Structure formats: C-alpha cells, structure tokens
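Design a sequence for this backbone.
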C-alpha cells in the first residue's frame, strides 16, 4: 500500500503529508528518520500486535528506505 504512495526519492514533506492523510501517528524527522505507528493489527486480552514504520532519508531529504513491521506488544 505504501510503495506507490512513498517511492524511494520521496521528500520529507511529502512523506509527512501522506502519513497525515492516512491518519498515521508519526514522529518528526529526527536524525534522518521518521518513525510511524500504524496502529494495532490484531489483539487479545494478553497483548496484541502493532504495525510500525521507519522511513530513512539521505542528507538531501529524500527517502532512501522504508520498513514496515508487525511487532508483538504482549508478554
């Protein structure tokens, strides 16, 4: 879903705009990285799974890497 919206080479402002338009919680650009929290993918009484993104930029402010992972939030 994100690949067509945020191809490699996308600018920082465009990346922030796309994340905002998708109503994704995210950090500001810090040390050439934006961190995003896409929310829960599934859950249970003992915990759940969250979807997180990391968007890395070069010195010119262009996207060079994006990684979205699902992480366990439970015990």
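Sequence:
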């Amino acid at each position: 879903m994100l690949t067509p919206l945020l191809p490699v080479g996308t600018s920082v402002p465009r990346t922030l705009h796309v994340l905002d338009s998708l109503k994704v919680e995210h950090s500001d650009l810090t040390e050439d990285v934006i961190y995003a929290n896409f929310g829960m993918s599934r859950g249970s009484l003992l915990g759940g799974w969250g979807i997180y993104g990391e968007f890395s930029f070069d010195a010119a402010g262009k996207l060079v890497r994006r990684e979205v992972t699902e992480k366990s939030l439970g015990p």
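Strands lie at 25-26, 33-44, 47-57, 63-72.
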